[in-house]
Amino acid sequence: MLNILLCGGGNAIHVLSAYASAKSDxxxxxxxxxxxxxxxxxxxIPEEGIRCINDLxxxxxxxxxxxxxxxxxxxxxxxLVIFALPSxxxxxxxxxxxxxxxxxxxxGAMPGEGGFDLCAIHNLGADFCRQSNLFALETLxxxxxxxxxxxxxxxxxxxxxxxxxxxxxxxxxxxxxxxxLHELIGRLPEFDPADNFLAVTLMNINSVWHPxxxxxxxxxxxxxxxxxxxxxxxxxxxxxxxxxxxxVSDEVMExxxxxxxxxxxxxxxxxxxxxxxxxxxxxxxxxxxxSIYTMLRTxxxxxxxxxxxxxxxxxxxxxxxPNFRYRYFTEDIPSKLQGCENVDFF
Length: 346
Known about the structure:
Largest sheet: 8 strands, mixed
Structural class: alpha/beta
Shape: globular
Oligomer: single chain
Helix content: 25-40%
Number of helices: 13
C-alpha cells in the first residue's frame, strides 16, 4: 500500500486525487492549511469521488481517504508527499510537516520552481533530505481546470514531455522515483531528466506566461471598467504579447549564457526558450507552430482558459473585474520571476 499525502486544494490536487485514489493499492490524504478549504473540499466530494474528465481516455473517479487541515492528522509512515500549491506556501507546509515525516520519504513539488530543494533543506534539514528522495517537476503534467469544486475537474491537455529533477537517497535510483509518479498519472507525459534544481527554477513557464500575457491584454484597457464576461487568457493574446513573451524568454536565455560562461562545469541543457518548450510540451496539440502568438491561440490544451477575474454586481447584472490578487501576480512575480532576477543579480 502506497501512502500518499497531497498538499493543496486547487486544480492540480483535484486531478491528482482522482488519479491516485482510483488505484486499489493507495491510501490518499489531502492536506490543506488554507483556512476553511479542507472543510469545504471534504463536504463537496461525492461518494463516487472526484470526477476527472480525461483528455486521453475514459473519465477517472477517485475519492481520497481523508481531507485534513492539521499536519498532526497526517497518517504515519507516509511514502509520498506531493506539493501542488503556490511556491510561497512551500515553507509553511514544510515547517508544519517536519515533526510528522520520517527520513526516507519521497517529497516533491509540481511545479517545483522557486528553489524547492533549498527550501526543503532549510526547513527539513540537510541530513533528512540526504536520507530522502527530493523531486521537482518544471511544470504541471497537464493544463487543467476545476469544473465544480470537489466534484469535477477537466484535463484540457496532457503534456507530451515534462522535465523532472530527482535527488535520490542512497541506494535509490532516479528512475524508481519517476516510475512511482508515472504509475499515478499514467503513461504521459514522458518524464525527461532535468539537469538540476536550478534549471527547474529558471525553466519557469508560469513566470513568463502569466504576468506577460496579463500585461499584454490589459495594457491599453481601463481595468476599473467591468467586463461582460471573463476574457480568454491564451486565446485572447495578440501579436504584441507574443513578441513580449519571446523577449522575456530571450532574457532568461541570456542569463543561461552568462551562467555557463562563469561556471563552465554547470549544465543547463534542460533550460529552454518558451517557443521550444511549447512544442516539447504540447506537440501536435498545437495547430499553428509558426510563432509564439499562433501557438498560444491554437493549442488545444489552452482552450477556454480565462483571465482570473472577480465577479461584481452592476445594477443587478453580473460583471467581471481583473483579479490582480490571483496567484498569477501574488506568486508568479515575487516567487518566480523575481527569483530569476535574483539569480541574475548574484
